[in-house]
Amino acid sequence: MAAFWKKVVRNRALLLLVLPGTAWFLIFAYLPMFGAVLAFKDFRISPDGFFASVLNSDWVGFKNFEYLFRTSDAYVITRNTILYNVAMIILGLISAVGFAVLLSELLNKRMAKVYQTGMFLPHFLSWVIISYFAFTFLSPDKGVLNQLAAYFGTDSVSWYSEPKYWPFIILFVGIWKGIGYNSVIYLAAITGIDKSYYEAATIDGARKWQQIRYITLPLLRPLMIILTILAIGGIFRSDFGLFYQLPKDSGALYPVTNVIDTFVYRGLMNMGDIGMSTAAGLYQSLVGLILILTANYIVRRIDRDQAIF
Amino acid sequence: MAKRKTFPMLLSLLMLMSLLAACGNGGNKTAEPAKEAAAVQSDGTVDAAKLDPVTLKLYLIGPTPTDLPKVQDEMNKYLKEKLNTTLDISMIDWGDYTQRMQVITSSGENYDIAFTSAWAFDYLPNAAKGAFLPLNDLLGTYGKGITETIDPRFLEGSRVNGVNYAVPNQKELASQAVWRFNKKYVDKYKLDIDSVMTLESLEPLLKTIKENEPADITPLAVPKSFKPPLPFDFLIGDEIPIGMYLDTQDHKYVNALETPEFKQALDTMRKYYQAGYVREDIATLEGIDNMKTGKWLVDKEITQPYADLGWSRSAGYDIVSRPMQKPVIATGSAAGSMMAISSYSKNPERSMMFLNLLNTDPYLRNLIQYGIEDVHYKKLEGNYIEDLPAMQENYAMPGFALGNLFLTYLHEGDPEDKWAQFEEFNKSAVVAPTFGFNFDTAPVKTEVASVTNVAKEFIPVLFTGSVDPNEYLPKAQQKFKEAGIDRVIEEAQKQYDAWAAEQGK
Fold first, then answer.
1. Which chain B residue shows the shortest CA-CA distance from A63?
2. Residues of B whose CB is below 8 A from A50
3. Structural domains in chain A plus CATH codes
4. Which pTM was predicted?
5. Which residue of B has its CA nearest to A74?
6. Over the Cα atoms of chain A, what is R_g?
7. ipTM of the complex
8. What pLDDT, in 10s, does the model give residues B307-327?
9. Interatomic CA distance for residues A217 and B172, integer angstroms
């Protein structure tokens, strides 16, 4: 015990630094974990307060999970969630790294800042606003695309009831919104790369492309791997606004826009059933955990040093 | 070593939190029920001198008006004298109300009274979850004024297994859907609106407008949520196609998708969509601004006596309406606007006394809705008032959600017999076969969640005519079956039969 306190005193400055983060995690991430128990209960309110309500509710086993799996939608929403996320992770990685490299190579630093800010801006817009941007293009009667179609004499498209276009629209808009934010992370890493590597490469006669290929990308690899593993953990969650607001909740598009989050929202919004919503959240988290561990395991098999744990 | 330490630490943290929560609850003073009962005099009025001072926490729906604290002070002055009670009113905006109240309830905050209804902070599921206090005994002891004043059918319709969990706000009880017409075009083309009732009978009128007016005039101006008139009493809202015929003989719930009326309505809407009588983007149209633009011929609305006057006044041009169906009283109509007492309330007796006063005392009732005399409104002759600018700017309250509407003042232009007409309207209505039956979804909640999802996918696109019913209706039927609609119908029938047997029907 004495040794423990000695350690604490010795590291007090570092411990103090870590304290706010720890407190945040305990209160907002670890403490609510006990709530996961609600997934197996039929939540009823008891007049003695929240904890009494939790304790007094009846156990119902896996009944709260049933609605997630009982219809053929279970396949559709799982497929959509996973495929969109996989595509988003791959395309997002390529585009973010690509743009970060491009921005870092710009000679005019002032213009680089302008482009960077411009790309960052969509990140701050809410999905509701973006859905109206999209609507100005896609509206069946007054939309830009259909006006153009009329001008060139081609048939107009009823965008909000044609599922076949939406996988592309969703991926495009999703990446457009995230690219600024993600490329900034890589840009920061590139800025941190020691300039002497490039100087040495230039002296050896390496061209730009060779510098990128043999210096920038290998040095970005650890960051790419960490961010990808973390993104894989979120593969069972999706950006709710992207899949709900952007298609304007159009029923005809559900086969290609329904994901686990929107499915749960639509089914439970009016019922307000805490047990069933918790069950959905727990299911997503559990699969996320399994996926993270698997991804990490694979990375570790390939390159031990790059794995997170 | 480290592992073993984590768990006790978390546990103690948890206990600390619950301790804090318990301390938080201790703030509100509790009055003893025996003392409360003794204060009620034989004529039903309350002797405030015998009561301990109490503060009631209220949650109401709507945006918070700037002058709420001012009016609240005025109400507290009056209530102090009448019930030795003060109020602490919080208002939550329309869109946030359901969600915020869900969180407030689940977290165990001990508020006293909250607005509830069939459409915001839903009455039935929350009553089933135990969020509201059963009121039968309280109504008997402290709420005599309520039971005497309001139409008994309000209380009957909001009973769940014989228990009242909320006090309905007396207003129009029956609901009647109407076609509203923009009078400008009716006059211009001398359209015959008196023979209009069904969806099909609109066709010649829509056609006239489409052929003679420019393209930006929408003949049938309805949004995504539009439902044509159907002869059903729906079980769980009009999105989910389970209902009983209003003129049913056998009292059976049916799958509305399989009825000829449903198919006919869908075919007609498809025809209208293809003919361009509705907006092309109707499938994604959450709301429609036809009232503001004036570029429309007909839309759908729920009416009440003298509604045409109000609509014309707010639109700034003339609007006339014709009924789509007879006024109907269904279970949901009684639950349009209610006040519930929380099961966490420490002062349920006093809450009921307050609700009783709100529903019987014209001074208090008008104070909460219209604010302070000569500040927010000017009293005219009789029961009439005139709004002062301060009301529009700083004290706009949703009148229908604040207790007995029939006690409120009238505005200039309102007919003198307005509230009498409301009562007449309520009396003239057809009572639905399921009136008073409240479906408990708990045994089939898995199926209801699945069916709700399917309904969201198919019902709006079908009812707006945006897809071909010949292709999509069979698809929808199959998917509803898969989701368990038959199981829900079966359960509803079982509960209904048990309820009907109890009622002696």
1. B446
2. 21, 106-108
3. 74-269 (1.10.3720.10)
4. 0.79
5. B450
6. 24
7. 0.78
8. 888 888 888 899 999 999 888
9. 71
